[in-house]
């Protein structure tokens, strides 16, 4: 098959998230003999260029991995129109949690962003979303949300969601019924190798966070709050928290860490060799406000890093079996998170058992397994 991927930006080199997912999928499909092509950017996604590529490359499948709604509104109807009357099928992927548009941002971080030159309208919107009840927001924005999700449904032959747990939310927000246009495919693992069980005992007393430095979605201030509780407890000075990643709020998090006088913490910034951090860490922390999938959780599992995460999104349960392949904590119950984190830090035998189980479980998301599901989908 000849497959055309639509993205907002080039996915080479991948920068994480959707770009990484697209890059992995494209590479694996090419290895299986498929032709993979990419259209991105304003010029690449123009009607003229898309029409040209569809014809000249003899495209069979279009995979829309666009993220921003503006691109989806402008591009999806065009692609769908160009492919009608042909055998070309349009598959749209939602690499997000349905309804995450209604999640706002804290007042303190919104003020910080405002003084950093962030769009004032977006800052105000985030604060309103943060303070208003979800039921009110769904009522106020119901028409807008319905249109947003109907665009994906109306201009696709298939819609790929990351979890069966997202189906009802998508249908509800779009005013739709669940039908055979929907399918579910999890994200594939980023790495092809799995940590050898023999290396688990060699892991260091290190807790890892690997994330985009974005308070609105990743809520790393919660992790810093919990780490302060660990510092205050005073019995784990031989443990270290390592935070890897870059983004708009990195300075914000460094200021919080300084103000809280946090010990045994390191901000590493963006790193090319992320796998080295996974190989040596024992525990992976996640405190996100929302995720579509949580790719770093499965990356951690395949490297034997035991994940602990707030249950702030439903697909988390597809990844972690609580108490066996990781730890699930009720959303923003900090004391419970602290106690369960300490329990992991104190019990090496428990960590090593869960690390082995996590590695074994992560094989469900291996690239070959996920690619089989994609190839089955191509036979629409």
Molecular structure report:
By secondary structure, this protein is α/β, with parallel strands linked by helices. It has helices at residues 17-31, 41-44, 47-56, 69-83, 107-115, 120-131, 134-140, 142-154, 167-174, 215-218, 220-233, 250-259, 274-280, 295-302, 316-319, 334-346, 348-362, 367-378; strands at 2-7, 35-40, 61-64, 89-93, 158-161, 182-184, 206-210, 240-244, 265-269, 283-286, 306-311, 327-330. The chain has 2 domains: 2-100 and 139-184, Glycogen Phosphorylase B (Rossmann fold, 3-Layer(aba) Sandwich); 197-365, Rossmann fold (3-Layer(aba) Sandwich), CATH 3.40.50. Strands 2-1-3-4-5-6 form a 6-stranded parallel beta sheet, with helices on both faces. Helix 5 (107-115) runs antiparallel to helix 6, helix 8 (142-154) crosses helix 9 and helix 11 (220-233) crosses helix 16. The longest helix is centred in the N-terminal third of the chain and has 15 residues, at 17-31. The radius of gyration is 21 Å and the shape is globular.
Largest sheet: 6 strands, parallel
The CATH homologous superfamily of the largest domain is named: Glycogen Phosphorylase B
Strand order of the largest sheet: 2-1-3-4-5-6
Mean pLDDT: 96
Q: What overall geometry do the principal axes of the alpha carbons give?
A: globular
Number of domains: 2
CATH fold type of the largest domain? Rossmann fold
Radius of gyration using CA atoms only: 21 Å
> Number of helix segments?
18
